[in-house]
Amino acid sequence: MYSPQRKDFVSLMLGDQHSHNYTNGKHRRQSCWRKWKQLSRLQRSLILFLLAFLFICGILSYPSLTEQWRGLPDRSLKEDWVEMDNQGLRPIPPGFVPKLPPGVVPGVQDIPPEVMPEIQRPSIPLLPKPPAMRKPPSKRGPPALQKRGNVSDWQVKDGEEAMIKRDEDGGKEAKTLISWRGAMIEAEQGTELQSTAHGKEGTVADAEDSANLKPVKAVDRVEAVREAFRHAWKGYKAFAWGHDELKPISKTHGEWFGLGLTLIDALDTMWILGLKDEFAEAKKWVETELSFSKNVDVNLFESTIRVLGGLLSTYHLTGDTLFLDKAKDIGSRLMPAFKTPSKIPYSDVNIGKGTAHPPRWTTDSTVAEVTSIQLEFRELSRLTKDPQYQNAVEEVTRHVHRLEGKRDGLVPMFINTNSGKFTRRGAFTLGARADSYYEYLLKQWLQGGKKETELLEDYLQAIEGVRKNLLRQTSPSKLTFVGELSNGRLNPKMDHLVCFLPGTLALGAHNGLPADHMELALQLMETCHQMYAQMETGLSPEIAHFNLQSNNGRDIDVKPADRHNLLRPETVESLFYMYRFTNDSKYRDWGWDILQNFNKYTRVPSGGYTSIGNIRDPLNPAPRDKMESFFLGETLKYLFLLFSDDNELISLDKYVFNTEAHPLPIWPSTSSGRSPELS
Ligand code: DMJ
Fold it and tell me: Which family does it belong to (predicted)?
């Protein structure tokens, strides 16, 4: 039991309880001192210890307290917006920064007056400012492909810091990032200031404002694509002729394989667009300059879909055997890739030495890469009557068909070239590293005349796998998207690459697959459109994140590192299929908007178009000085076909497009499902 006599506690009665009137400070100090002296040594030590302890605690908790006072973390900030919204108050949209008079430092005065009283409510003390972001202009303005200050200023905005580091004397040292599928991202070097994007050239960009207001005839749009192609070609011809890629701002070229990638990728586009002069000069280069006898490592997948695919389709369109001969040459030089313990091909081949190898850091290959070369090699066998190409790629298809480790038909991202097994890393995705596996299941089935039932089974199962595991709807607008499954958890992000899927689903439905594939295609097409329409430049980011919380936030969010746009084709590809199968003119309108925005934000006056680093900043889209070959091979081709009224121009009942938009013929009917000439 407790004994009041015991003195193992500390009394802090430092004053007389009844006397509240201190006469003066001195008296109080004397009284305190006297009391202190009356305490035992133990009591004094304990008090000192307690005070020291409180002091240390105070020091330690100071930073986190001040952090809370300065600004709430993102999540609570969002909740505050929502809470205000729920109470019928108008929240400040994240990113809203009203115009300030010059010299005024942003602060509470930033906030619109109608919101001000609510901000001062005691329930939300010290409300932090919205995250600083440039206010989008009310009207989309011209791009920063214009002369304004030092060109290098373009490159240090938002997510761009990682791309560029400047050296001390103000120059720039480019840091190269390697992204997926030929998107070797390099910061521009030695760029030269451009005159205005609209300036004297009198191009599509000049006409677009009025075009925004008036309905545009289909014929004008077709012509606008031709004009865009010519403009891109002008830059390529002037600064990168015969090289892989144009660097339009620095007016030079980039080399990847040294095979004239842009030129070969663009051959059939020129033919389809009816650009005869341009085609003739490109053909001359193929005839006189193109040689595959080079000591150079090429990526099997990229050179198959771009070079082999481009040459084969140009052969079909023109009937000119020059292109078939070149196709045979590159096709046979790529074959060493299949000499692996598992027959799953290596990623890289030296086309001069005839040797192949995996990347330096792994013996894995990417699943999409080894399963998206089949259309081209099968066609090469059909044309050459040499079965080796078809046999090699179909062995891969059969192997992957049987392989364990799929999830409801969905494949992992990597496969080992030694064991032939899937590697358990990465996510289940319809985006990078897996995308065209699904595309080629359907397209091979179509190419072979719908005979190869295993391909169809795998495709149907995979689409069900997508529905079961990856499909979600955003809040608040219920946009349907395909997320990624990583360690059993859904990551609500979608690569722009996934926007091939609406077109592929629609193609399947057109060929008798379930009607709900078309319904899904319609929904996903809307989402891909929104990935453009909701951005300040009207151009999609490379990756979008979607909102699953029921908090009335934004449906689509973009991380700073994902704000780039590489002039990719997938959305316009799907728009083309959707228009062909539905005749709904809104798909043409969406494609037209995209073309106009490419003209506004990516067109370089001296010729060419450039990838950009920031689709959220119309004043500074941060040009990256690179025109990917697929812009000419795919993006402009699909736009042209979208706007063309001639449905027989590359009829979808006669051709399948490879994953680089090179049309290959659907084989005439046979009984076996093998290439007819080989059966
Ligand atoms: C192209 O090389 C092909 O479309 C490929 O299948 C995916 N990536 C690019 C375009 O984005």
Answer: Belongs to the glycosyl hydrolase 47 family.
